Every structure is written in C-alpha cells, then in structure tokens.
Amino acid sequence: MKDGEDVTPGHIIILNGAPRSGKSSIVEAIQTGFEGVWLNLGVDAYVRHITPERYRPGIGLRPGGERPDLEPLIPRFYAALYASIAAHSRLGLNVVAEFGHHDSYSQPLGILSDCAKLLAGLPALFIGVRCPLDIILQRRLAEGAERQGSYITIERDMPIPAPIVAWQDQVHRPGTYDLEVDTSTKSPEACAEEIRHLLTRGVPHPSAFERLASGD
Fold first, then answer.
1. Which helix (H) or strand (E) holds 16?
2. pLDDT per residue of the chain (216 residues) written in tens, 0 to 9
3. CATH topology classification for 12-214
4. For the chain, what are the domain ranges?
5. I need a surface site. Which of 7, 19, 20, 193 has the fewest CB within 10 A?
C-alpha cells in the first residue's frame, strides 16, 4: 500500500452473544466461506493470547461485578481493541469479532456506545447471536477436556450458576442489532449465509452502531 492510495474500508462484523451461544462457530464459517481476508479480533483471542494472565478475564468479565479491581481497565481494553478493528478496516482488511457485551459491572461503564463511536464511518454490522439457555447448558455439559476451565463448570441436575443466568439476561441489552441469528435452529453456516445476504444488500442506514453511538 502506497502513501495517499485510496483504500476501500474492509467490512466489520461484530457478533454479540452469551458464551457457548455459537459465536466462534459462525466466525469460523465466515473465515472459511467468505471471500477476501477476514481476521478474527474477538474476545477469545484478546483474552487468551494478548491480555496478561493477572488481568484476565479482562473484557471477558462476567456480569455482576465479578472483579471490581479490574473494571477501571475494561473501557481502555475495549477502546484499544475497537480502535484496532477500525484500523484494520481502514487498511482494507475485513474483520469478524465475537463479544459478550454487557454493562452489568459494579458501576455502569457505558462501554458499548463508546465502542460504537470508534467505528464511525466504517461499514460495520452488529449481529445478535441468540441461543436459548437450555441449549447453552447442553453445550456446556458436552464440552471436551480442552475447554474445561474456560467457563464455569456445571454438572447435570445442579442449579444453574448465577453468572450463566446473568449472561443470558444481560448480553442482549439494549438489543440494537442489524440482524439476529439463532444457533439453536440454524447451523453456523446458515447463520453466516444470513450475514452474507445482509452484506450483499449493504450496511443499513442508520446502522445499529450508528444508533448506539447516538444513544438511540
């Protein structure tokens, strides 16, 4: 890329949903099936490979004030990551990223609207990934050893842990999306295809991120 060269911004797809709702599988389907370069700059990569261990779960903090000592860092972590997403787009690279946005900290931080402002002027879609709680629980019970420790441990016939209920309750607030998909009724590939159709039609105006940035 040469200085002064005009570059068409890359597409940005942000997937938002609770843990084990199927976001990562949709990311994989997009990276595998969509044309062009699609980089994953989501929460899993950021927490597991970028955030120092002593500051984890970082932006993966659960709803309910899990780590008040870390909360002052969370807005900066999110701002840095969204600024990076925007920078990739401005260089013509497509980005798909999965998050579990919520504002249920010990003190409300208003992170989502601030993140939306960092994507101003870029072709960004905000996709809600929904999945009923009973299906999420089935997926957690079926997890292999390689995923143990990634989430709260559950066992059959035990009460549903409060953080899991809180995720389901908080993650889709305010629920301002360009598109919603349900992974309990459709495969990751089918969900990705719905997103592809939306991309083909173009980012809506005002988009979900534009509405979030303006406070609507």
1. strand 12-16
2. 565 578 999 999 999 999 999 999 999 999 999 999 999 999 999 999 999 999 999 999 999 888 999 999 999 999 999 999 999 999 999 999 999 999 989 887 889 999 999 999 999 999 999 999 999 988 888 876 545 555 566 667 778 888 889 999 999 999 999 999 999 999 999 999 999 999 999 999 999 999 999 987
3. Rossmann fold (3.40.50)
4. 12-214
5. 7
